[in-house]
Amino acid sequence: MADDVSTGALVCACVDVVRERGMAEQPDFPVYFLYGLLRSANWPRRVGMIAKKEVVDPRVVDTARVGLAELGVGLGAGSPALAARLLADIFRDRDWNTQPLSELLPEMDPSALVASQPAKLPWQALVQTPMAQEPDVTKEEYMPWDLLADRSFRLDLYYTLARGLMWGILHPNEANAAYEGHARGLRQRLPMIRHAGLVLDPGFSPPTLPEWIDGHETIVLAYEKERRRLVALPAALAQAEPIAARLKAAF
After folding, report:
1. What tens digit of pLDDT does each residue of 68-121 get?
2. At residue 143, what are phi and psi to the nearest 5 degrees?
3. Is residue 251 exposed (0-12), middle (13-18) or buried (19+ Cβ within 10 Å)?
4. Which residue pairs from 93-102 have beta carbons closer than 8 angstroms and sit at least 24 positions apart in sequence?
5. What strands lie across the sheet with 45-47, from one edge to the other?
6. HSE (CB half, 13 Å, CA atoms) of 8?
7. Contact (CB, 8 A) for 174 and 78
8. 219: which residues sit within 8 A by CB, 6+ positions away?
């Protein structure tokens, strides 16, 4: 998990977030996203003959984590204002005047991590430790549902989204090219996928680049409608590079 691979400023900031916010309060966006995606796939499920317990497939959890990273990359690349607000919301207790973005920036740009895994999409590369490979999980087909409330797991969610947002902000052209290449490849594979027996709507096609970005925006707007508004973008964060340059280019 994230706190096992780094003890830098970004992880310390995420640790502060997890420490200060409990599960009882309105969930932050990363938690909302993960639980919403898992519940839409009918998880958790109960297993056991006598003492039934709630479980989840770790591979499905990993898919959701990659989806969270993809959302961050997509918003950072195509909707920088919303990405900056989401970043501000993750660290809404941070004073950006006394704790500037420059303190986190070296760790928030995972360029080397993405570049070292050219066979993976950027958002796949950001999920460094698949849950399905965790020592406590590999022995079992399922993992306990309540493990998702574990401090280290929640820390990983904040860490993954924050880095996805910033990577997209810093590398919009690469992010857009990665998605378009992925969508193009999927379109080419659709006949083979259908032939293999996967049932798809006759008119199904991967979203276009604008639709991909719009889909991510829709999820965040749904969160604001169902849960709470994201915090306003602090001036100190809006004026910090590279966010300031991206916001200027967007208007």
Report:
1. 999 999 999 999 999 999 999 999 999 999 999 999 888 778 888 999 999 999
2. -115, 150
3. exposed
4. 93/16, 93/17, 93/20, 94/13, 96/234, 96/236, 96/237, 96/240, 97/236, 100/236, 100/240, 101/237, 101/240, 101/241, 101/243, 102/240
5. 45-47, 53-56, 143-144
6. 13
7. no
8. 33, 71
pTM reported for the whole predicted model: 0.87
**By C-alpha distance, which of 86, 83, 53, 105 is closest to 213?**
83
Number of H helices, E strands in the chain: 13, 3
Tokens of 188: 């080419």
Residue with tokens 């594979």: 189
Block residue for tokens 């709507």: 201
Mean pLDDT taken over the chain:
86
Quick one: three-class SS letters along 136-167?
A: CCCCCCCEEHHHHHCHHHHHHHHHHHHHHHHH
Domain boundaries, the chain: 2-250
CB atoms within 10 A of CB 12: 14
Q: What is the DSSP letter of 220?
A: H
For residue 59, which amino acid is it?
Answer: R
Q: How far apart are CA 185 and CA 187, in angstroms?
A: 5
